[in-house]
């Protein structure tokens, strides 16, 4: 990112007279509390006002801080073998597919139901068995890349969707187009029946005439009942919008649409209406599509005539009218809500004032930070993925990747009751974009582009991913020894806490998911996901009595739903062969000879076992079970198995529904907190991107991973779910809040080392009162707070346009 940099004295930015960081924050006894008076300098550049003006000294003699310095570079030890195929590869693959007469492809932008066309092209995952010899150096050449392509084949005898693998790349004489079957295990390989394939714009367009014909006939009623009419999305008389629905098939032989109407525009997700159409729309012949039924006023009608009869009899009316004016859902500043004291001051910032402490190889998408190293990869369905994660040059995790972001809704209406989204189905990765510097990533963060392909073009989102180190707001560790003197200690040791975050935000329609991977200094790795954006809401029915969520506007109910975000963590803790150790706290009654008076009495004990077989499992009740990925063959100095602990964080839930027809068999991965399997090249993904339209006959069945294999001393994979039960509320308006809509997990060294890994950090203080002078001696290990002027970008910078070429 090229930014014009504006150098601003910190004093001016803070709009107060404090701080040009002291030359040594810890060099005098008055460092604590209010006794400390930092130097001030008030003549800021750029900002003329502020109470600092006129106070203190001029900042001009300070050097410029390095907080906007270039990201230090490094050279990745290996080629990034997981990264995306190149734009040139995409074009070559596109051309190769279109040159193949047997595929008989049509330009997707002109395609109709009965054509064959490319749905998308992406990168095929690289087999781990091919990668390991390269990483270990036993093979010189990196594994060759392959593309995967989904082709919609409406033009063949039995229309379907079929997936292909194309490679090796770059395209050359050896390159072939082969069916891609091996990553799908439910029996049909890469083939999905026509009715179960992604309901793309071509299929949506084919159903529109039926929707229009129904709604045209009912226009007089809908105008009066729900305040709008629908003549087609492009017709300028239309004042209603139709909603996306999913799933739209149960087993691939049927195909249906359950359409709820809403008001169009920015408030659309929060202005649902009490009017639903149910269509049957299987196959490639739209003349066979038909209306199945209509619903309003909590009644179901099997024909237009039935509904009209009820209307004519005066039986249909709305108690509440939906709000047309979208003002109430805008995310703008609302002066009518008042003003908070001091809120006009610039908020605290986390800035890399000492200069960046991480290195990036932008070419190879490789990062090094305080002993950590890892590679980044990106895919259309899954977004950002991390590979070969090492700490202190030892392997911890081979692959850490999102697998699915699912949401299932509930409600006593045809739309909410039937809604279950898999966001990878909607290519979550293409919705990763546009991070606002200073607000979503700190000023000075490193931004990386996101690249994906649409047909034979390359789309680049310049600020799709950010990397930054920030203050975590707590010391990693500290201790105060002794309370014998005026300071309250003989010595006090404290270690500064900071962490490196890799962040991306995907906006999938109504929702914004923020995905963070946070690398801590002592070897912990935290994964978290947060949700913001608009609720997918229901019309407000008082008869529901709040059972499906509260009323959040005059005619809107916040529909209760689950978010389940599934991840894969292919642990390779100090090597590929690992086991999953369970340490459960159990209570036992025992006698101890030195307490004869108690007889038997209760003690906690650890019941330690190793999981034997592949399985799905849950967190222990009230935290009673510790799960660790251990390496039986690697011991620390104390003879303990070296391991990483899996620590539950915030909101660790699994899907509530067990037998819902909409989530019946296509998402078993969402139905337990955790699962462990043996790593196989043909089991790279928990889900398939086309599973969501096949709830009863999935293309890919996660349950088939659990076929009794031993997970002891094997290359094992941990699958885990983050998420939340979204108990909706008025404070979800205008949008859900990231602060509490959060779920997380942490992986931490467990006897991986012989002691805590913060002893080598220099950003620490050791404070001892001098016995003779009574003053405090500060040991700063050569790391002092800098005296410098901070840099900020021009205020409007931080967003760059998409590049399409
Ligand atoms: C190719 O597909 C078109 C429809 O896109 C179809 O009309 C034509 O018959 C097909 N050709 C062959 C050889 O199958
Ligand atoms: C709608 O479109 C028609 C045909 O293009 C045009 O004649 C008419 O003026 C438009 N009406 C409105 C309200 O924009
Ligand atoms: C799919 O569901 C329909 C309707 O429930 C049923 O008639 C049909 O046999 C099912 N087909 C398959 C392949 O399961
Ligand atoms: C890291 O480990 C590899 C072997 O796994 C070794 O070749 C390399 O020298 C080590 N690097 C450092 C900095 O210790
Ligand atoms: C992409 O396809 C379009 C339409 O077929 C064509 O006009 C264009 O030249 C192609 N671009 C590349 C880079 O091949
Ligand atoms: C321990 O003994 C008490 C008292 O007899 C009994 O209630 C309790 O269930 C015992 N606990 C266990 C773990 O056996
Ligand atoms: C806490 O966990 C222990 C061990 O699993 C279990 O026996 C106990 O019932 C749990 N207590 C509560 C309040 O859930
Ligand atoms: C990856 O491994 C699977 C399973 O062994 C194999 O079928 C497939 O061809 C391999 N893929 C590539 C690109 O070599
Ligand atoms: Cu939600």
From TrEMBL:
Coiled coil residues, start to end: none
Post-translational modifications reported in the UniProt record: Topaquinone (TPQ) is generated by copper-dependent autoxidation of a specific tyrosyl residue.
Family under the similarity heading: Belongs to the copper/topaquinone oxidase family.
Active site location: 423, 511
Keywords: Copper, Metal-binding, Oxidoreductase, Signal, TPQ
Protein name: Amine oxidase
GO cellular component, one term: plasma membrane
């Amino acid at each position: 990112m090229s930014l014009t940099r504006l150098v601003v004295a910190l004093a001016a930015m803070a709009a107060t007279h404090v701080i040009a960081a002291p030359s040594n924050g810890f060099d005098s006894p008055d460092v604590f509390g209010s006794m400390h008076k930092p130097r001030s300098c008030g003549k800021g550049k750029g900002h003329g006002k502020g109470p600092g003006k006129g106070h203190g000294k001029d900042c001009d003699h300070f050097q410029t801080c390095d907080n906007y310095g270039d990201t230090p570079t490094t050279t990745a030890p290996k080629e990034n073998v997981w990264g995306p195929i190149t734009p040139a590869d995409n074009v070559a693959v596109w051309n190769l597919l279109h040159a193949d007469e047997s595929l008989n492809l049509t330009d997707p932008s002109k395609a109709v139901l009965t054509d064959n066309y490319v749905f998308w092209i992406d990168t095929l995952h690289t087999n781990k068995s091919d990668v390991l010899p390269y990483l270990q150096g036993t093979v010189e050449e990196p594994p060759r890349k392959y593309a995967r392509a989904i082709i919609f084949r409406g033009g063949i005898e039995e229309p379907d969707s079929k997936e292909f693998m194309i490679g090796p790349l770059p395209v050359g004489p050896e390159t072939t187009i082969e069916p891609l079957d091996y990553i799908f295990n439910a029996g049909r390989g890469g083939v999905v029946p026509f009715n179960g394939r992604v309901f793309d714009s071509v299929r949506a367009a084919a159903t529109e005439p039926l929707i229009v014909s129904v709604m045209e006939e009912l226009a007089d009623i809908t105008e009066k009942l729900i305040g709008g009419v629908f003549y087609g999305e492009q017709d300028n008389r239309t004042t209603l919008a139709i909603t996306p629905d999913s799933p739209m098939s149960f087993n691939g032989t049927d195909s249906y649409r359950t359409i709820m109407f809403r008001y169009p525009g920015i408030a659309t997700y929060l202005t649902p209406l009490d009017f639903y159409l149910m269509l049957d729309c299987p196959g490639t012949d739209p003349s066979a599509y038909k209306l199945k039924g209509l619903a309003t006023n909590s009644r179901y009608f099997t024909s237009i005539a039935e509904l009209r009869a009820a209307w004519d009899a005066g039986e249909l009316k709305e108690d509440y009218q939906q709000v047309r004016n979208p003002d109430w859902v805008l995310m703008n500043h609302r002066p009518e809500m008042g003003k908070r004291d001091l809120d006009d001051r610039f908020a605290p910032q986390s800035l890399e004032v000492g200069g960046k402490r991480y290195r990036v190889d932008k070419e190879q998408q490789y990062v090094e930070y305080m002993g950590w190293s890892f590679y980044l990869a990106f895919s259309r369905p899954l977004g950002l993925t991390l590979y070969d994660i090492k700490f202190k040059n030892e392997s911890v995790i081979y692959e850490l990747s999102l697998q699915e972001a699912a949401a299932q809704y509930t409600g006593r209406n045809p739309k909410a009751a039937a809604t279950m989204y898999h966001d990878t189905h909607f290519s979550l990765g293409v919705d990763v974009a546009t991070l606002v510097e200073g607000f979503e990533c700190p000023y000075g963060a490193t931004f990386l582009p996101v690249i994906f392909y649409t047909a034979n073009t390359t789309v680049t989102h310049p600020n799709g991913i950010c990397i930054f180190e920030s203050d975590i707001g707590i010391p990693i560790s500290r201790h105060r020894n002794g309370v014998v003197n005026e300071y309250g200690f003989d010595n006090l040791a404290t270690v500064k806490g900071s962490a490196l975050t890799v962040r991306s935000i995907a906006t999938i329609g109504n929702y914004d998911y923020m995905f963070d991977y946070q690398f801590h200094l002592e070897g912990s790795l935290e994964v978290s996901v947060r949700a913001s954006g608009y609720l997918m809401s229901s019309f407000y029915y008082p008869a529901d009595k709040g059972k499906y969520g509260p009323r959040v506007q005059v005619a809107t109910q916040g529909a209760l739903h689950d978010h389940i975000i599934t991840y894969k963590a292919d642990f390779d803790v100090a090597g590929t062969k690992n086991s999953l150790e369970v340490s459960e706290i159990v209570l036992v009654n025992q006698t101890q000879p030195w307490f004869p008076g108690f007889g038997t009495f209760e003690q906690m004990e650890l019941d330690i076992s190793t999981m034997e077989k592949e399985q799905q499992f849950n967190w222990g009740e009230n935290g009673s079970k510790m799960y660790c990925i251990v390496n039986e063959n690697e011991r620390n100095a104390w003879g303990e198995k070296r391991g990483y602990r899996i620590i539950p964080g915030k909101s660790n839930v699994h899907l509530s529904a067990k037998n819902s027809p909409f989530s019946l068999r296509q998402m078993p991965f969402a139905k337990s907190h955790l699962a462990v399997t043996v790593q196989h090249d043909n089991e790279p993904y928990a889900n398939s991107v086309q599973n969501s339209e096949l709830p009863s006959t999935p293309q890919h069945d996660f349950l088939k991973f659990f076929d009794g294999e031993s997970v002891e001393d094997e290359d094992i994979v941990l699958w885990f779910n983050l998420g939340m039960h979204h108990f909706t509320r008025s404070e979800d308006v205008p949008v859900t809040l990231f602060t509490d809509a959060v779920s997380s997990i942490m992986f931490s060294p467990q006897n991986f080392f012989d002691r805590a890994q913060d002893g080598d950090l220099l950003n620490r203080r050791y404070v001892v009162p001098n016995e003779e002078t009574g003053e405090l001696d500060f040991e700063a290990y050569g790391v002092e707070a800098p005296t410098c002027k901070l840099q900020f970008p021009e205020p409007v910078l931080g967003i760059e346009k998409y590049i399409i070429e």
